[in-house]
Amino acid sequence: xxxxxxxxxxxxxxxxxxxxxxxxxxxxxxxxxxxxxxxxxxxxxxxxxxxxxxxxxxxxxxxxxxxxxxxxxxxxxxxxxxxxxxxxxxxxxxxxxxxxxxxxxxxxxxxxxxxxxxxxxxxxxxxxxxx
Length: 131
Hints:
- The chain has 131 residues and is mostly helical.
- It has helices at residues 15-24, 44-56, 76-83, 104-110, 118-128; strands spanning 29-32, 38-39, 74-75, 87-90.
- Helix 1 (15-24) packs parallel to helix 3.
């Protein structure tokens, strides 16, 4: 269930991958600005599940927009705390302060529900990386 590795480098790397890479290299986790920006982090297998359900459903397919996300969000500071370890703050960049998915259509039309929270999968991810 936790066998896949998260991308830890490149332009599309998520904060978890960046934090993991920094920890593996012995560096503190870098947090942009005050770290209070919030994101709706979604487990990759939940995204895959939603796509499979959408591809086989007769309730969608006419251009509907379905948001796939946990429907809750965490601050970058909270994610860093889940990883544990030293942090350092660097200059902020222009970015949205909060993102949050309204997954009600996915629940209604696909019967989809998120199955994991970041509190559940970050510890498993850290085990994979021997952190």
